[in-house]
Design a protein that fits this description.
Blueprint lengths: L18 H6 L20 E2 L8 E3 H4 L4 H17 L2 E5 L5 H16 L2 H4 L11 E5 L13 E8 L11 H26 L6 H5 L7 E8 L11 E4 L5 E6 L5 E5 L2 E4 L7 E5 L1 H6 L9 E3 L7 E8 L6 E2 L17 E2 H10 L7 H5 L4
Parallel strand pairs: 1-10, 2-3
Antiparallel strand pairs: 3-11, 4-5, 5-6, 6-13, 7-12, 8-11, 8-13, 9-10, 9-12, 14-15
Length: 357
């Protein structure tokens, strides 16, 4: 992996307490540092009517039947433009592998903290990092969340405990990369670009791929806290697998839409780099992670981005007098570092490079 600029978390190991430990401590109220002050939290929350949320059948996207594939590409483009989100079924990841991944990650979080402390790193860009919230040193309000964050491409890293998790993760990530490649082909074609346009433009073969396992323990006051505050993702696309407990909310027309995915489906979120490449036609999804008072939610997310040294810019074919460039050029490395430094309560990384036309 190309070297990334170092940034440290001062005294990260002193007085460190996981959210899991707080949850298991028997609290009846949450510490004030977890009480959300985000204005977007006041918007209404709704369950969408059945059949409203877009579903893409991956087997049809890869079909040899031209009519089936063409229709699915149209549906994919519509989902990206109107929802910035879709649910992916028939994606080809074996159910057994997904189960092994979820069980292994659960076991990892259940390991004694002393065993996990080797991953409690000071460098924000260490290839394997375990911790709580998002950037607990810089942020004013914390997320009710523990995480395991791993760089899995262009070099593969993963904890070697519990036994078998590393091998399962290697296979799982391979599937996710192939799925992402096909999705980006479909997205390119939905924009009347060459099938490999986006993959080539972002140098996908050398891309930075980041796997994040999120643990959202039961929260005594879920109405006051958030697992993750409203945000957009820094990559091209984020693919998400849940443990059967729903908790993803997406922002749509001034309302929070509660997502309930079909069993074994992946949830796919369009992210910042796709917004840049499409010159704003396909926006980044604003989303958050909700909490429960009794249920424990785990999500496995994989952010698939450009290579670190790629300069990401709007596709020239999508720029004209009516649609001037909407974003300054910047390397993905620079963008990634901006995103990692900021907190949820500050200007988003995308806002730093957006051009006001």
């Amino acid at each position: 992996m190309a070297e990334i600029a170092s940034e440290t978390l001062p005294n990260v190991t002193s007085d460190f307490t996981t959210v899991k430990a707080l949850s298991e401590h028997g609290l009846t109220s949450i510490p004030s540092s977890f009480v959300s002050n985000n204005n977007l939290e006041d918007l209404p929350v709704i369950d969408p009517p059945q059949g409203t949320l877009p579903i893409i059948d991956f087997s049809l996207l890869t079909s040899r039947n031209p009519q089936e594939r063409s229709k699915t590409i149209q549906d994919l483009g519509k989902a990206c433009e109107e929802w910035n989100f879709f649910m992916l079924i028939n994606h080809g990841i074996p159910e057994s592998l997904m189960n092994v991944m979820m069980e292994g990650i659960t076991e990892f979080f259940n390991l004694p903290d002393e065993e996990k402390k080797e991953f409690l790193k000071e460098n924000l860009y260490d290839p394997i990092r375990w911790g709580s919230s998002f950037n607990s040193v810089r942020e004013e309000v914390h997320c009710w969340r523990d995480f395991l964050k791993v760089f899995v491409h262009p070099e593969f890293h993963f904890p070697d405990k519990p036994a078998g998790l590393r091998d399962a993760a290697f296979e799982y990530i391979k599937h996710i990369r192939e799925i992402t490649r096909e999705l980006l082909r479909g997205v390119s074609e939905s924009l009347d670009l060459e099938p490999n346009y986006i993959s080539n433009a972002v140098n996908l073969e050398s891309s930075l791929q980041v796997f994040v396992a999120n643990l959202y323990p039961p929260c005594p006051q879920p109405e006051l806290a958030m697992g993750l505050f409203p945000h957009t993702d820094y990559s091209l696309m984020t693919l998400i697998l849940e443990n059967g407990i729903s908790g993803l909310d997406i922002l749509q027309d001034g309302k929070w839409i509660k997502v309930k995915a079909p069993p074994n489906a992946l949830m796919v979120i369009t992210a910042n780099q796709l917004e840049i490449v499409t010159n704003g036609k396909y926006k980044s999804s604003v989303h958050r992670a909700a909490l429960y008072s009794k249920a424990k939610r785990i999500s496995l997310t994989t952010g698939n981005g450009p290579s670190l040294d790629t300069v990401v810019r709007p596709a020239p074919e999508l720029v004209d007098e009516s649609h001037p460039p909407g974003y300054k050029t910047i390397t993905y490395r620079e963008f990634f570092e901006i995103h990692q430094r900021k907190g949820f309560d500050k200007q988003s990384a995308l806002d730093y490079i957006r051009i006001q036309n």
